[in-house]
Every structure is written in structure tokens, then in C-alpha cells.
């Protein structure tokens, strides 16, 4: 056990391990590219949908069921399925990752919107605000904490799942996990797993930091 | 992409075995998760300083990708079912712990004081008053944990287990979509049925919530 961790440490700090097309630097960049692009596309789809459902109150049924459907859908199966349908391209990975991220974002955005006090919305309307003003200047800012939680959840899931890209012969940090498994090289497998976990934790911390920074300038909720 | 129906007919026995193995892994994980999270949740609920620590710790565990969890367990428990169930259990903890603590928090202080005034001892209060009243929130957590576990078992296919997930590896290696489609559909069905059964169980376990609505 101790030997294994020593080897793992050596693997992680080895300078040569970090350079070249198989190096950690390149794999890390690939992993981040898959994860961030997929999360951005998912957000671009899911945020308007969540806002619309939350604002109009229509389609709540869809939003609630989407989340349990999203949780139940086996991502590995989805990746393989789209892969077999589309052939060798990055599409399967991106489609699976976006499909994974959309439900978390939609449901949290919707939950954030419905949590906004009806009296606050009435007051805004009473002051003569138009529908879009109520949405963007009242509901959205108040719903932002939950929306951010949804984005964080989605990003963590996507970073974790981007590992699968390597399974269908693409790059990213999953390469070490799958190559290591194939070569029975446990140190490499563990190294990949540790790196993916680190990326997930660091990105989550970064987003929660961003979240805190965004809310610092808001007036106190109730004092 | 077409489904080869005769393949399904030829493999019903294998499919049954895989489905049962899939279900066994997921349900063991949820049961273990409940066993571990109940005492921890009571602790987090009663001892305030521990609350943030326990909930924070379970959140960090949740951040670690599932495949990484399975892989990191390899040196300890090898390519076995134990690794699958342990990995899944770790995942259920975050949902179960959070919901059980929230459920216990949701029990009104007056109710607990009434039990105390009637001379009910703390342990008995916990078992006969607090836990039953917390049940709806706890069950919400159990439902999420169950659906999530059923979906996640497939990931263990990389370490040679994974129940229905093995159909994904099989279909991928042979470039044959049928097992993959069957695997996805069966996983979704398992999750839906398990969720519906848990809703029914909650209905049976919490008769007072219905009575109140009817009155």
C-alpha cells in the first residue's frame, strides 16, 4: 500500500510525465476542453428552458421528471450508443455530456425561480415593471444561488464523466485510467483517477468562490 | 441503428442474471448507505459542531468521479463486487446523510418537547417520534440514492463488474448496438420501477400524512 502511494507520487511529479502529446499537461487541457465546452452548451440550452418554466409556471411536470430521468440514464450506455450510431467522432462524448448536464441545470434553475417569493414579484409588477424586467431584474438575481448550485453540480458530473471519452478512444485524463487498466498498470490508473478527482474538486471550489464573489455586492437579505 | 430482436430472445437468461446482479449491487449500496448514514445523521443533528464537518466531508466524497472511486478502491478490494458496492455506497452517503439530517431538523421542537414531557426517553423519542416524522424527507433521499445507484452500477463495468453495464462493453467491443439499447432501457426501467415501489412504500409507512390531508 505504502509502496503504491510512493510510486503514485513519483508518477505525478515526474517532469517527463507532464510533457508531450501523452503528457499530463495535454491530457488535462483536453479534459478541461471537453468538460467546459459541454457544460457551456448545456447551460445555453438549459438556462433559458429553466427560466421559462420557472417564470411561466408551465411545464413544471417536465422539469421535475427530467431530473429523475437524467439521474437514471446510464451515461456509459449513452456514450456507447451514440458512438455506434455516429462513428468515430467527438459527437458521442459531447452529446452524452450535454445530456448529463442539462437536467441538473434545468431543475435547479426552475427550483430557484419557484422559490422566489410571489409577493416580491407582485410588488415588482405593482411598481410598473414589465414581464422581462421582473424576470431579469427580480427573479433571476434572487434565483441565482440555486442556479449556481445547478451549474456546479452539472460541471462536477461532466468532469467526472468526461473520463469516458477515453473509453471510446479519445483523450482527456481518462486515457490514464483506461490505458492503465489495459496494461495492468495500477499506478497509472490511480494517477488518472487522482487527477480527475483533483480537477473536479478544484473546479467546484473555483465556482463556489465565484458564487461568493457575485453575492458579496448584494444588499443583505433581511437584517 | 436497428434492434436485433432475436438476440434478445436468445439471451433472456443472461439478461435476467445481469438485471438481478445489477439490482443486487444497487440495493446493497443503498441499504449499507442507510445503515451508515442514520447514526451519522443523528450525530450531526444532535452535536452541532459535527454537522458542518460530516456534511462537508460527504460533499467532498461526492465530488470525486465515480470511476475514480472504483479505481481508487482497487488496491484495497481488487476487481470484485465489494469494490462496486463500496464505491456506490460512498455515493449514496451524500444524499442520504443530507436528507436524514434535514428530516430530523424538520421535526417541530414542540413535538419533541411533548414527548419529553410525557416521560419518553431520548432513544425512544428518536425511534418512535423523530424518525417517523422525518420519514418523508428521508424517503426523498432514499429515492434519489436508489435511482442514482441503479444508474451508476454500469460504471463498474470498467473494473469487470457493473451488472447491465457489461452489455455496454459487449456492444461496444462487437460494434453491435442491440445489447447497448437493451442495457439502457433495462436500467431506466429498473430505476423507474424501484422509484415507484419506494413511493408506494412511503405511502404505506406514513398513514398520518394522508389522514391530515383528508380531514
From TrEMBL, chain A:
It comes from the Bacteria. The chain crosses the membrane at residues 32-53, 60-85, 91-111, 153-174, 186-207. Pfam families: BPD_transp_1. SUPFAM superfamilies: MetI-like. GO terms for biological process: glycine betaine transport; transmembrane transport. It comes from Streptomyces kanamyceticus. Belongs to the binding-protein-dependent transport system permease family. It is found in: Cell membrane; Membrane. InterPro entries: ABC_transp_perm/SBD (IPR051204), MetI-like (IPR000515), MetI-like_sf (IPR035906). Residues 28-207 form the ABC transmembrane type-1 domain. This is ABC transporter permease. GO terms for cellular component: plasma membrane. The keyword Glycosyltransferase does not apply. Keywords: Membrane, Transmembrane, Transmembrane helix, Transport. It is a multi-pass membrane protein. The keyword Chloroplast does not apply.
TrEMBL record, chain B:
It holds the Pfam family BPD_transp_1. Residues 19-198 form the ABC transmembrane type-1 domain. The keyword ATP-binding does not apply. It is found in: Cell membrane; Membrane. Its main location: membrane. CDD domains: TM_PBP2. GO terms for biological process: glycine betaine transport; transmembrane transport. It comes from the Bacteria. Keywords: Membrane, Transmembrane, Transmembrane helix, Transport. GO terms for cellular component: plasma membrane. The chain crosses the membrane at residues 20-41, 53-73, 79-97, 133-160, 180-205. It is a multi-pass membrane protein. Belongs to the binding-protein-dependent transport system permease family. This is ABC transporter permease. It comes from Streptomyces kanamyceticus.
Amino acid at each position: 500500500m505504502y509502496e503504491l502511494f510512493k510510486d503514485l507520487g513519483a508518477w505525478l511529479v515526474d517532469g517527463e510525465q507532464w510533457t508531450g502529446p501523452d503528457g499530463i499537461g495535454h491530457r488535462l487541457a483536453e479534459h478541461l476542453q471537453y468538460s467546459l465546452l459541454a457544460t457551456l452548451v448545456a447551460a445555453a440550452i438549459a438556462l433559458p428552458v429553466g427560466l421559462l418554466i420557472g417564470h411561466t409556471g408551465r411545464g413544471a411536470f417536465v422539469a421535475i421528471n427530467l431530473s429523475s430521468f437524467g439521474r437514471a440514464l446510464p451515461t456509459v450506455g449513452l456514450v456507447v450508443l451514440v458512438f455506434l450510431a455516429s462513428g468515430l467522432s467527438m459527437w458521442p462524448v459531447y452529446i452524452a455530456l450535454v445530456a448529463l448536464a442539462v437536467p441538473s441545470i434545468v431543475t435547479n434553475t426552475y427550483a430557484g425561480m419557484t422559490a422566489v417569493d410571489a409577493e416580491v414579484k407582485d410588488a415588482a409588477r405593482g411598481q410598473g415593471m414589465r414581464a422581462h424586467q421582473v424576470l431579469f431584474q427580480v427573479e433571476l438575481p434572487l434565483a441565482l444561488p440555486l442556479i449556481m448550485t445547478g451549474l456546479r453540480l452539472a460541471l462536477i458530473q461532466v468532469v467526472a464523466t468526461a473520463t469516458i471519452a477515453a473509453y471510446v478512444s479519445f483523450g482527456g485524463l481518462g486515457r490514464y485510467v483506461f490505458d492503465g487498466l489495459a496494461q495492468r498498470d495500477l499506478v497509472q490508473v490511480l494517477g488518472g483517477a487522482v487527477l480527475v478527482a483533483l480537477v473536479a474538486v478544484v473546479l467546484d471550489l473555483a465556482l463556489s468562490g465565484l458564487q461568493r464573489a457575485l453575492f458579496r455586492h448584494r444588499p443583505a437579505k433581511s437584517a | 441503428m436497428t434492434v436485433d430482436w432475436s438476440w434478445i430472445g436468445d439471451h433472456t437468461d443472461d439478461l435476467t442474471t445481469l438485471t438481478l446482479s445489477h439490482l443486487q449491487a444497487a440495493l446493497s449500496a443503498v441499504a449499507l448507505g442507510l445503515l451508515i448514514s442514520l447514526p451519522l445523521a443523528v450525530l450531526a443533528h444532535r452535536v452541532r459542531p459535527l454537522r458542518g464537518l460530516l456534511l462537508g466531508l460527504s460533499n467532498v466524497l461526492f465530488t470525486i468521479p465515480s470511476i475514480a472511486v472504483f479505481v481508487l478502491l482497487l488496491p484495497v478490494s481488487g476487481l470484485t463486487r465489494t469494490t462496486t458496492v463500496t464505491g456506490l455506497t460512498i455515493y449514496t452517503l451524500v444524499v442520504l446523510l443530507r436528507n436524514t439530517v434535514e428530516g430530523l431538523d424538520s421535526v417541530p421542537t414542540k413535538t419533541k418537547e411533548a414527548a419529553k414531557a410525557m416521560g419518553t426517553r431520548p432513544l425512544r423519542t428518536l425511534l418512535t417520534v423523530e424518525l417517523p416524522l422525518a420519514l418523508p424527507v428521508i424517503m426523498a433521499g432514499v429515492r434519489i440514492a436508489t435511482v442514482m445507484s441503479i444508474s451508476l452500477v454500469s460504471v463498474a463495468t470498467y473494473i469487470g463488474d457493473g451488472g447491465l453495464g457489461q452489455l455496454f462493453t459487449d456492444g461496444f467491443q462487437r460494434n453491435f448496438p442491440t445489447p447497448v439499447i437493451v442495457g439502457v432501457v433495462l436500467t431506466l426501467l429498473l430505476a423507474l420501477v424501484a422509484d415507484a415501489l419506494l413511493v408506494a412504500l412511503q405511502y404505506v409507512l406514513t398513514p398520518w400524512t394522508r389522514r391530515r390531508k383528508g380531514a
